[in-house]
Amino acid sequence: MIKIESIKDYQAILTPQDFRRLTDYIYDQTADLKEDYPNYREWFYDVQLAGLDSAERDILIAHPTINTGNIIGVACLKNTTAERKLCTLKIDNGYRHLGIGHDLVDAVIAELGTNQPFFTIPDYKLGMFQNLINQYDWQLEQRLHGYYNDRHSELCFNGKLIKTDELPTPTPRKKTTCVINTDAGTTRTTTPEKLMV
Questions:
Q1: How buried is residue 85: exposed, middle or buried, by Cβ count under 10 Å (0-12/13-18/19+)?
Q2: What is the pLDDT of residue 6?
Q3: pLDDT digit string (tens) for 145-191?
Q4: Cβ–Cβ under 8 Å, residues 36 and 30
């Protein structure tokens, strides 16, 4: 039997150190995603984990009911008014083709409230996800080459990624003058060339 839980359930019962060990273990289980997404580590810790305190982010884990310490599947979610996304779906190699991915996706669909979550994968992994894509009738809407790296194209299902050339240009702040008093009593003035928002 497989059990699927939110790691938010563990935040209240684990010490901060034990919760950090759990999240580090989850990261280790998914760390090979750095090959496709060079900023995966920063995203996992600074965005996904940092967002757990809100309703906008969650991480679901799958583990055997008899061995709760053995995480065999992970799904990272984003749930905002603008985007309901399955950000990460990873099943341990030794547990593939057993329906765990389907169980996790069913839990994701229940949490996000849609059968068509936004989902992206590298093009060379299409075969790994084809059964899920077919079962849930997810629609390919975009193919972007070089979005995350130059080695492959990203396939976007049930939505589109913003191309980097479509991102808004940051508005420069007004130039400011900074006065710095040094220990020697002298004053130095600097004017930053351009500060970004």
A1: buried
A2: 96
A3: 988 888 899 999 999 997 555 444 444 433 333 333 334 444 433 33
A4: no
Write out pLDDT tens, residues 133-147.
999 999 999 999 988
| Burial category of 174 from C-beta neighbours within 10 Å (exposed 0-12, middle 13-18, buried 19 and up) | exposed
Q: Is the pTM of this model over 0.85?
A: no
In single-letter form, the type of residue at position 183 comes to D
Query: Which residues lie across from 86 on neighbouring strands?
Result: 77
Which CATH superfamily hosts domain 2-190?
Gcn5-related N-acetyltransferase (GNAT) (3.40.630.30)
CB 45 within 8 A of CB 27: yes
81 contacts: CB under 8 Å, gap ≥ 6: none
d(CA 102, CA 31): 22
